Each structure stands twice: as C-alpha cells, then as structure tokens.
C-alpha cells in the first residue's frame, strides 16, 4: 500500500500538470517531472541525507510576537492593491475574477468594473496567468496573517486606463488606449499599477515588528518585485517599438507614465521609465533602466497617502476616483476619507 506521503505527492503532481490546461492554451510540457517529480517521489522534498533529517525551519525569531497590533493596518492596506492586481490579471487571462475562482477572499466586496479577457499571445498569457494565481495566494496569505478588508470597488475599465495614458502623454489618444486589445497594450497597462505595490511594501517594512508580518511582507515584496522585473524586461525588449497607432515608442510611454505617477505622488522622483538620463542610471553610468531604483539601486518607498494620490488619479488622498471610485478600504484609507473603516476583523 502506498504511503500517505507518496499519495499526497502524486496528487500534487497531478494538480500541477492539470493546472496548465487552461482555456485554449496548450498544456505545459511534462519534461519538468524528470527533476521535480523525482524529488517528490523519492524523498527529496523535506527529506534528509545520510545524516538524518535536514533542518528546514528558520531559527527562532528574536521577537516572539507574530503580529503586533500596529502591524495590522499597514499590511491590510496592501490588500487594496492586491485586489486590483488579482482582478486585472485573472480577468485578462481567464475572463473571470475572484468571484469565480476564490470568492471567499472578497469578503463581500463588489466585483470590479470593466475588467475583461485580453487578446494575449502565448508568452504574455502564461505570464499573466501565473501572476493571476500568485495574487490569489497573496490575498490569502495577508488575510490569514492580519485579517482582511472587503474588496473595494475597482475600476479596471479600458476607459480608466485610457484616461491614465491620456494624462501621461498630455492629450487624448485616438483611438482611446485599450489595455485588453493586445499583448503590448496589456504589458503597458501592467506597468501602470503593480509597481506601486513594491513602493508600498518597501515603505511598510520599517513600520512593522512582528516576525509573521515581517516574513509576510518580505515574501510579498520578493514576488511583486519579480513580477515587475518580468514586465519591465518584456517591455525593455520592445523599447524601440512604436505603439500603434500613436506614434510613441514603448520607452516613451513608460517614461510618461512614470512622470505622471511622480506628479500625482507629489514627493519627488520615485518612478523611472525604461530609459533614463545616464546620471539617473545605476551608479550614474548607464541609461538602461530595466529596474527602477534610487541612487543606491534600492527600491523607492511610498507612503499610503502617496499611493492613494496616484491610484485615485486625483493627486489627493482625500478625493477618491480613478481605480477606486469609492475609495480604498481599511482603516488607513478610510481615515483619509473621514469614513468608517470597512474591515473584517477576523485574523
């Protein structure tokens, strides 16, 4: 009779393989199983060598408190962005969102406005689909650690992204920019929102003290940074490509979007496009800017107020709009609106 461990491993393999058969996109190749499968089935995962069980857990934390009371609101604030990213990626990849794939995570919040399936090529679809599933995990991890807030009303309509691009370039694009029209437009739209999550987590980290919240934010920041690097890398590869029919290149549009975010944030340069003046590049020696970072090549930090000014597209954290027509949720965001916090207190 097979051991419970082998049975569980076999189930995991089947789930991983079956998860790749999504929509009209071809299944993942099975070659990965030669390496990963061998580890799963022959004791490589969690098993020890000849000297006994390997140490797989972190050392005891210096601070024996998992979550301090003051950790909760800053980490919950991040759920606003995570909801937006999850819905955007899920709808673009699959044509459905959290209400279909993880309704328990919405905590009763309204569905997003205007999100829909995008016309993506194979590579971009796979990137989008993977990011979509990752965002579900992020929402679950945050809610499990500090409790949740209801999903806010999020406007992911083509009209809203068109407004961002119009404001970035300084005139109305004709036809209006549509993030769901093709892979390049979608990648440019991804450039608009998720990078702000990196700014937020970088700003949140010094404010929290619990070992569980620090571990959570570190893990979130690592994956969000990886996502941003992938998107910027794909866009950099196309930096000289003219975005039809607007006559502007990919590099020019990313620079304009970054300039708009700096303007709305009102706290200096914390955002840079794919190409920068050499003095703003790494060590002041290169104009290539695949990763946006400060003079020491560290991620820029933004406060909740800065993020809301940008996400509301109003330049004012007290005036909702843009991607959050009714404002973001949680104690911090509602405090700026002088409205009661929409919070689920379960931890």
From TrEMBL:
Residues 1-22 form the signal peptide. The keyword NAD does not apply. The keyword Transmembrane does not apply. Keywords: Signal. This is Desiccation-related protein PCC13-62. It comes from Oryza rufipogon (Brownbeard rice). The lineage of its organism: Eukaryota, Viridiplantae, Streptophyta, Embryophyta, Tracheophyta.
């Amino acid at each position: 009779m097979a051991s419970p461990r082998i049975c569980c491993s076999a189930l995991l393999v089947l789930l991983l393989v079956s998860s790749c058969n999504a929509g009209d996109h071809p299944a993942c190749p099975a070659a990965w199983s030669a390496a990963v499968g061998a580890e799963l089935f022959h004791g490589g995962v969690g098993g020890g060598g000849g000297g006994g069980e390997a140490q797989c857990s972190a050392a005891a934390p210096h601070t024996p408190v998992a979550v301090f009371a003051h950790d909760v609101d800053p980490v919950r604030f991040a759920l606003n962005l995570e909801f937006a990213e999850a819905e955007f990626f899920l709808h673009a990849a699959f044509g459905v969102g959290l209400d279909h794939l993880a309704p328990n995570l919405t905590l009763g919040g309204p569905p997003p406005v205007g999100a829909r399936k995008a016309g993506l090529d194979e590579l971009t679809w796979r990137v989008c689909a993977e990011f979509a599933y990752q965002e579900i995990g992020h929402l679950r991890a945050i809610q499990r650690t500090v409790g949740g807030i209801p999903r806010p009303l999020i406007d992911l309509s083509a009209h809203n992204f068109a407004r961002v691009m119009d404001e970035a370039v300084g005139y109305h694009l004709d036809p209006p920019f549509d993030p769901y029209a093709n892979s390049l437009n979608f990648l440019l739209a991804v450039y608009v929102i998720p990078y702000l999550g990196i700014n937020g987590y970088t700003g949140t980290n010094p404010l929290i003290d619990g070992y569980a919240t620090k571990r959570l934010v570190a893990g979130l920041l690592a994956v969000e940074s990886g996502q941003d690097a992938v998107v910027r890398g794909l866009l950099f590869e196309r930096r000289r490509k003219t975005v039809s029919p607007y006559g502007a290149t990919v590099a020019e549009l990313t620079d304009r979007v970054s300039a708009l975010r700096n303007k709305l944030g009102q706290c200096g340069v914390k955002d840079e496009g794919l190409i920068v003046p050499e003095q703003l590049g790494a060590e002041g020696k290169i104009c290539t800017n695949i990763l946006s970072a400060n003079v020491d090549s560290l991620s820029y930090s933004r406060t909740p107020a800065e993020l809301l000014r940008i996400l509301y597209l109003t330049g004012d954290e007290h005036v909702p709009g843009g991607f959050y027509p009714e404002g973001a949720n949680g104690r911090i965001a509602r405090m700026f609106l002088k409205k009661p916090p929409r919070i689920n207190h379960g931890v």
